[in-house]
Write a structure and sequence with these properties.
Distance between the termini of chain A: 61 Å
Strand order of the largest sheet of chain A: 4-5-8-6-7
CATH class of the largest domain in chain A: Alpha Beta
Distance between the termini of chain B: 68 Å
CATH topology of the largest domain in chain A: Uridine Diphospho-n-acetylenolpyruvylglucosamine Reductase, domain 3
Number of helices of chain B: 24
Largest interface: A-B, 52 and 58 residues
Strand content of chain B: 15-25%
Number of domains of chain B: 5
Number of strands of chain A: 12
Number of strands of chain B: 36
CATH architecture of the largest domain in chain A: 2-Layer Sandwich
Structural class of chain B: alpha+beta
Strand content of chain A: 15-25%
Shape of chain B: globular
CATH class of the largest domain in chain B: Alpha Beta
Oligomer: heterodimer
Radius of gyration of chain A: 19 Å
CATH topology of the largest domain in chain B: Aldehyde Oxidoreductase, domain 4
Largest sheet of chain B: 7 strands, mixed
Chain lengths: ~300, ~900
């Protein structure tokens, strides 16, 4: 039987090398989601490659036209950074809404952006999933949440993804082919089972947020004011004639919509709601979450327009 | 496996670990630092918080290999060479510690967030603690403690001889704050085996075959047990013993134990479980309580002993007066249907037990509220005499009714300990705790009430169905309590109810704080509110107008003695500024009120016999220390401290001269345990009697030695003196006179409930020597766009007779209100096809510090004539009024009635729309 391994990488290239010689691997940064997935045996990787000690992944640079946040920066470190808070108030609101202060001490930017998609029929113990008859996301035949559909609609729950995409953030991805910078939204595949369109060895190294004078809004739906994953995240930014709305928690990927300012709120709401593929995969009803998309967008636009 | 060096609390440890082990596992199991608790295993509760390089992290989700080369600091490292940290001291002093299981995590989190914000506001403290769950305190006293620590507020030094009525930390509070209190799973035992369970994936099925041959082959597996090995039935109520330790022939819910594996380690046992094959043949499953009242076909009954051809477990029905006439003479009537989801106790310490067999017989240490009932059940199921069984309750991390039944895991490991002659330990994970359940029954009811032309309640009728799940538990009592506990705090002249408890294929329901009457109280108080609107009378006035008086008899012949209900209601009205605010707040904001009452101990024992309900022994020896022994279970409610205070009061001692040994069926006299809010009243009275008996012995001895008349001698402040002070000796000198030639002296006290109640069938249900009363006013702010309800304030008052320890009483009240608001706002046991969907602390939503409103606590003292120093219960009754008060506040805010719990934002919006559409 193959032994478990825990490898600590000192550089991105070393991490990628490690991944090559240990094909049954997962990257781990803060581990706040991964360790729970391991506990529930949703993740059974034999090798964990720890990225949190890579120096180049812990920088935070505030430049003239942009801010570069390396992906192993913890959420609480970012939360406490006053400059970033004043530059990106919706980002700060989003961070404060993630999990709990304790989890934010460990959790990292990259980990949040790459958090696995969630569904209440999937994020369960191994015993539970077997008893219910494994769903698509754990190698079963049908989607339980949607009552038999052949696609997985596990929801994308990264609040940072929603807010950073609303701020037109880019990410630098390091992989076998070198390093490239792409729009953040491009890393999300829209598939609930494999939600990220990155090759296995890819490392999300940095997030680049352009400094722009935008009006912003952030709101998150959940029953308690802490701990919980999102049932709907709504991040809006308005700049010049553009309204950008990004919705999380209501689709396997962040739902991104751009509108001109002359589009009516009603139209924005109809188009936004239509684009979300919500299934009953958390404790709110599908109908309610859908309705709240409209309410949140309306509240947001009223506040900032 | 890999060898590592770990720096913990300044010490270097060489350890062999699995590469994916968590830090909490290593701290607890390899370094024996058990002050770090594990309650959820999934980073959702904060109990396991430690510092890594000075930063607070949850050790249950931190890989140990992440911590190599870093400085790890645990709760054991917070005190300075035995001197508690001032924050620990504040937690103790302010009553921030009840069961204490969350305390180490709370303290570690606090020490971290205070570094960044040393002078936080209350709001900021609540934010800082929002990853740490507490189920006991309602967070209020925790925030108080942190605030006072941060503000460097000095402690008030109190008179160490002031006892009754003086707020006092629990005697064991410091131990809990330092992480030194051993809960069951913290106890080290040598050469132990570990037990793990295979649970049913079917809700209702025949077990066709079990093949565990491959499991037995796994190296390190010692034995495998199935239902046929332990077939004797048990149940907490002798009248409904319907459960076996492991499923026999069939399974009745998803999660029922089918096979137990015992092995040299938990990991080995777990591995072996995956090699067991069980074949099932499914039966029709009953998941909806409404299906269970219908007739069923052959082989579809969940239990063959159900009396009729259906799945009804118990029918309870009582009628008093003339309901028909009551309805005819009523001026206003309201009838409504209500629907309640089941909820779970959510105690932070998961079930755990350790059993051992030696020349003294069986010893089991277990997290139980009632050692005595477990004692009896073990004797019955395992067919060994009671004198060969010892049940010990270590420190216990919360119960709320959820640890009051005998449990399968306790029986299985006891069986194995006897069979194998080894020490066996077991701990359930959080998912298993939820599956074990015994929480509040899911309930449906139709309630109808009338008001006569004088605004008096003319009639009340309730038709109730409660979903018992797969087994009986306390269900027969729950069935009665749903009805009978409606006959106060208001005077009724015509009243009747019918409750049907049904079996379904779900984890069983049982007793939970406020047992039996929480949901029906919600219904009655909601309807009263509606009747007040119909009659155009203020809801508080209507309640005041109908309150039952002290020294009266209810319709069902309950004897009401002390009764502070009026004072409770008037207190919360005044404090909430009710008259000014009610009905006058802007749309979306509202105030609501409700009342309640509860038993102060069940007058009837579960096992019919003449043995007292409580017995307390005292022993004093020449060193002057008084040892209290009592079978009462301190489950975090402070009963050990209560006993100490009562004895100290009678004997004029400080707590330094008192030592309590409790809840050990070998060492302590039998007590019926911590359920039905009985301990202060019954064990308190027994302690008082034992102390008075000891006092008499001391007075006699001193009187004889000093030739002073007994009636002239007083005991106070550790001195024994005559009125004229010609005699004035120390306590210890007096004890020397007492023990001369005799040696250590023991005295005893006991409590027997007086004969109470009527002589009709069912008259015994809800009888109590005394009743508590309470009121709550709640204030809400509802977002009419989202339907989200925000709680702003809870003003609560509870008549506890006399607060023996006001700090502890406040803690019980705040915890009750907090638990009640959890049931209203967010908690529910949610199922998918018989599978519990939210068996974890992320999805089972106990309100956190930031979800908890300002709580304003009032203790009302009516001085009960029979309670010890006038005291009665305070641990359960307070929960009743808080739920309907919140719902009634929503009515005041928006004009909509909440009739199902928990409140869903979606329902609020739907009802608002119906209201606006004029439906």
């Amino acid at each position: 039987m193959m032994e478990n391994k825990y490898l600590i990488a000192k550089s991105c290239s070393q991490a990628i090398e490690m991944s090559k010689s240990n094909p049954d691997f997962s990257y781990i940064s803060g581990g706040t989601d991964l360790m729970i997935n391991k506990y529930q045996k949703n993740n059974i990787s034999k090798t964990l490659i720890d990225l949190s000690e890579i120096t180049e992944m812990k920088n935070l640079q505030i430049k003239e036209d942009k801010v570069i946040i390396a992906c192993a920066v913890s959420l609480s470190e970012l939360e406490k950074n006053k400059k970033i808070n004043s530059l990106f108030p919706s980002l700060n609101k989003a961070i404060k809404s993630i999990a709990s202060p304790l989890i934010r001490n460990s959790a990292t930017i990259g980990g949040n952006l790459l958090c696995d998609n969630r569904c209440m029929y999937y994020n369960q113990s191994e015993w539970w999933r077997e008893a219910v008859g494994n769903c698509l996301k754990c190698e079963g035949d049908i989607c339980i949440a949607s009552g038999g559909k052949r696609n997985c609609f596990a929801k994308m729950v990264s609040d940072l993804a929603a807010v950073l995409i609303s701020l037109n953030a880019l990410v630098s991805v390091v992989n076998n082919d070198g390093e490239k910078i792409i729009p953040l939204e491009d890393i999300y595949s829209g598939d609930g089972i494999y939600p990220h369109s990155l090759s296995a060895e890819s490392i999300l190294k940095e997030v680049v947020i352009p400094k722009r004078d935008s009006k912003v809004f952030f709101k998150k739906l959940r029953e308690r004011k802490t701990l919980e994953f999102t049932s709907l995240t709504c991040a809006i930014s308005v700049r010049d004639n553009n309204i950008r709305i990004v919705l999380g928690g209501v689709d396997p990927k962040p739902v991104v919509l751009d509108f001109d300012k002359d589009v009516t709120i009603e139209e924005i709401i109809v188009k936004s709601s239509k684009k979300c593929r919500i299934v009953k995969n958390d404790l709110y009803s599908r109908k309610y979450r859908k309705k709240m998309i409209g309410v949140f967008i309306k509240q947001g636009l009223k506040k900032i327009l | 496996m890999t060898q590592i060096e770990l720096w913990v609390n300044g010490n270097k440890h060489q350890l062999l670990v699995d590469e994916h082990d968590t830090l909490s596992f290593i701290l607890r199991n390899k370094i024996q630092l058990t002050g770090t608790k594990v309650a959820c295993e999934q980073g959702s509760c904060g109990a396991c918080t430690v510092h890594v390089n000075g930063l607070a992290v949850q050790s249950c989700i931190t890989p140990v290999l992440k911590c190599v080369g870093k400085r790890i600091s645990t709760i054991e490292n917070v005190a300075d060479k035995g001197t508690p940290h001032p924050l620990q001291q504040k937690f103790v002093e302010k009553g921030a510690i009840q069961c204490g299981y969350c305390t180490p995590g709370m303290i570690m989190s606090t020490l971290d967030f205070l570094k960044g914000n040393p002078k936080p506001t209350r709001r900021e403290i609540e934010e800082g603690l929002s990853g740490n769950l507490c189920r006991c305190t309602g967070y209020k006293k925790i925030v108080d403690a942190i605030k006072e620590y941060a503000d460097e507020k000095l402690s008030n030094s109190s008179d160490k001889f002031k006892m009754i009525g003086e707020g006092r930390p629990y005697i064991e509070a410091l131990k809990k704050a330092k992480g030194e209190a051993d809960y069951t799973d913290d106890i080290l035992e040598k050469n132990t085996l570990h037990c793990k369970f295979l649970r049913s994936p079917f809700a209702h099925a025949e077990i066709k075959s079990i093949n565990f041959k491959e499991a037995l082959k796994v190296e390190g597996v010692v034995d495998v047990v199935t239902g046929k090995d332990i077939p004797n039935k048990f149940g907490v109520l002798p009248i409904s013993e319907d459960e076996t330790a492991l499923a026999v022939h069939k399974v009745r819910y998803i999660g029922e134990i089918v096979v137990a594996v015992v092995a040299e380690s938990e990991k080995i046992a777990e591995k072996a479980l995956s090699k067991i094959e069980v074949k099932y043949a499914p039966y029709k499953q009953y998941l909806d309580m409404m299906d269970s009242i219908e007739d069923v076909k052959e082989n579809e009954q969940i239990h063959s002993h159900s009396r009729f051809n259906n799945n009804i477990h118990k029918k309870a029905e009582l009628r008093f007066g003339d309901q028909k006439k009551g309805f005819e003479t009523s001026h206003y009537q309201v009838e409504r249907e209500f629907d309640f989801e089941g909820i779970n106790h959510g105690f932070t310490e998961p079930h755990a037990a350790i059993a051992k067999w030696d020349e003294n017989g069986l010893t089991i240490k277990t997290a139980t509220q009632v050692p005595h009932y477990l004692h009896r059940s073990l004797a019955k199921v395992l067919e060994i005499p009671m004198n060969r069984i010892r049940v010990i309750k270590p420190y216990l991390g919360g119960g709320f009714g959820g640890k009051s039944d005998p449990f399968p895991h306790e029986i299985i490991i006891s069986y194995l300990a006897i069979k194998l002659g080894r020490t066996i330990r077991v701990r359930l994970n959080r998912e298993e705790v939820f599956l074990t359940n015994h929480g509040r029954h899911p309930t449906k009811m139709a309630v109808k009430m009338g008001l006569d032309k004088h605004n008096k309640i003319s009639v009340l009728d309730a038709d109730i169905i409660i979903d018992g799940g797969a087994y009986g538990s306390f269900g027969v009592v729950t069935s009665y309590y749903n009805g009978v506990l409606l006959q106060a705090p208001y005077e009724l002249s015509n009243f009747g109810f019918r409750t049907r408890r049904v079996y379904t294929n779900k984890p069983q329901s049982g007793a939970m704080r406020g047992h039996g009457a929480v949901n029906s109280r919600f219904a009655v108080e909601t309807i009263l509110d509606e009747l007040a609107h119909k009659a155009n009378i203020d809801p508080c006035q209507l309640r005041l107008h109908n309150l039952i008086s002290e020294n009266s008899i209810t319709l069902g012949q309950y004897r009401i003695t002390s009764n502070g209900s009026k004072q409770c209601l008037e207190t919360v009205m005044k404090q909430s500024d009710w008259k000014k605010k009610y009905g006058n707040l802007e749309k979306g904001k509202g105030l609501g009120v409700a009342g309640g009452f509860f038993i102060s101990g069940s007058a009837l024992p579960i096992h019919w016999n003449e043995y007292p309900q409580s017995v307390v022994h005292l022993k004093v020896d020449m060193d002057g220390r008084v040892l209290i022994t009592s079978g009462a279970s301190d489950i975090g409610q402070g009963s050990d401290t209560m006993l100490a205070i009562i004895v100290a009061e009678v004997l004029g001692l400080s707590i330094d001269n008192i030592f309590v040994v409790a809840a050990d069926t070998l060492l302590t006299p039998i007590d019926l345990g911590s359920y039905s809010s009985r301990v202060t009243f019954m064990a308190g009275n027994a302690a008082k009697m034992a102390a008075e008996n000891l006092k008499q012995r001391i007075l006699e001895a001193v009187s004889k030695a000093h030739n002073t008349d007994k009636s002239e001698i007083n005991i106070a402040k550790e001195r024994v003196f005559s009125n004229d002070k010609t005699l004035d000796i120390s306590w210890k000198e007096a004890i020397v006179f007492l023990t001369n030639k005799l040696g250590a002296i023991s005295t005893s006290g006991y409590y027997n409930s007086p004969k109470l109640g009527g002589d009709f069938k069912g008259a015994g249900a809800g009888l109590s020597p005394s009743y508590s009363f309470g009121s709550v006013v709640a204030e809400v702010d509802v977002d009419t766009d989202t339907g989200e309800v925000k709680l702003l304030n809870i003003w609560g008052a509870h008549d506890a007779g006399k607060a023996i320890n006001p700090l502890a009483v406040e803690g019980q009240l705040e915890g009750s209100w907090h638990m009640g608001l959890g049931q209203v706002m967010s908690e529910q046991m949610k199922y998918y096809n018989g599978m519990l969907l939210n068996a974890n602390f992320l999805d089972y939503k106990i309100p956190t510090s930031v979800d908890t409103p300002s709580i304003h606590t009032n203790i009302i003292e009516s001085i009960d004539p029979e309670g010890p120093f006038g005291a009665k219960e305070c641990g359960e009754g307070a929960i009743h009024p808080v739920l309907p008060a919140i719902a009634n506040a929503i009515y005041d805010a928006l004009g909509i009635r909440i009739t199902s719990l928990p409140i869903k934002a979606e329902d609020v919006l739907r009802k608002l729309k119906e209201l606006n559409d004029g439906e």
